Amino acid sequence: MAHTVEKIGGTSMSRIDELRDALIIGDREGPDLYGRIFVVSAFGGITNLLLEHKKTGEPGVFAAFANDDVSDHGWHERLDTVAQAMREAHAHVLDHPADVESADAFVRERVLGARDCLIDLQRLVSYGHFRLYEHMGQTRELLSGLGEAHSAFVTALMLTRAGVNARFIDLSGWRDRGDVSLDERIMGAMERVDPTTEMPIVTGYAQCAEGLMSEFDRGYSEVTFSRLAALTGAREAIIHKEFHLSSADPNLVGAQNVRKLGRTNYDVADQLSNLGMEAIHPKAAKMLRQSGVPLRVTNAFEPHDPGTLIDDQPAEQAAVEIVTGLDLYALEVFEQDMVGVKGYDAAILDVLTRHNVRIVSKVSNANTITHYVDASLKTLRRVEKDLNSRFPSADVTSRAISMASVVGRDLAGLSVLQRGLVAIAEAGLEAIGASQGPRNVDVQFILERDSLKPVIAALHGALVEQNSAQKARPKLSRAA
Questions:
Q1: Which of 157, 189, 219, 323 fits as disulfide partner to 281, beta carbons 3.0 to 4.6 Å?
Q2: Burial of 421 (0-12, 13-18, 19+ CB in 10 A)
Q3: pLDDT for res 212
Q4: CA distance 266 to 288
Q5: Domains in the chain, please, with CATH?
Q6: What is the pTM of this model?
């Protein structure tokens, strides 16, 4: 039987000692331990310290280095903070003092190498012939790779101590002069690896000529994971999370009311990515889809539960699978002279692309184009300024809104739009907009910011919980 390629995310990595006993080893022994390749993210919070905080934007080493004057060394303290956080992370999961010493030495060597590299770069750009911005892509890649290299090294140490023939596979390109493609990097590292007799522990970051971060930024580990599964002909690609892929956030609708999906397809995975609730990066999913490798999402701490299988199969019957949502801004361009004039759409899109604004959805009528965007208010103000310059007679406005979305492989015939609006109204709330596309995979409801959570609960109750209750209700015989 072919091997599996399995990914463990950063939050779960902080409990890798628990996963060793429950997921990785569990009740397996001998040959049953193998046939599995693990791709690991950095320990929780480390990548935020290396780059910048994903949610708050608080600067890490990279952001501080990028903003420093050549004579300033404020990033040094942040790099010291990273080293300390790494030591604390591996001290928490390693049991043997010798392993802790080995991990400490690994951190010292990698952090010292990165520090020397950044110092040399600052010295280089102090001359007028060189520009720091020309090297920022490589700098970001260098720093990011430190986190995954550390976690993979520590995991291999820990498993070896537990009697597993684990092997540290470093794709980070550390001190490697080779300018290779992603495929060459992966296949070169895996060339002499035998998954049937050893357990490869692979870094989620892979250094390559394409530059993963330039295209995928923080989604690079899922790309490495997907490409590794595709290139090695994996039987299945598995992502281990700290929760099941469920019908809604249990904190919003109650743990007793959520339903594990069990099975869905890549169409639904793409919709979730668009809503910021990534089961997997959409381009990573595309790699698996094209190579015919099914994806499974499991709860890492329930290793005997099969989780949710994601493949290309259509639904056997129409059903709502997930109710979710996110906070957005509605960017509205109103221009009375827009009617019948071409070019407004392209011009607005050009501005949004230039400011790297993620578009979640869009609606338009005769004289108004509204984009629902995921961006900071600061970025949005810059977009408004550019649009006002481009269309001086237009009225450009933005407002904070939220979007609740009902998603399923097949929503045909379920009257989700109508039933959803009724459920929202019965909860004493109001939708300020709603839309449904012809593909019948999602329905979107636009709301005021403070309505999102109660609307998700109302939609889930009407479209998931009621439906499940009706299915579970015993059917009466005609005689009864």
A1: 219
A2: middle
A3: 83
A4: 10
A5: 4-242 (3.40.1160.10), 322-472 (3.30.2130.10)
A6: 0.85
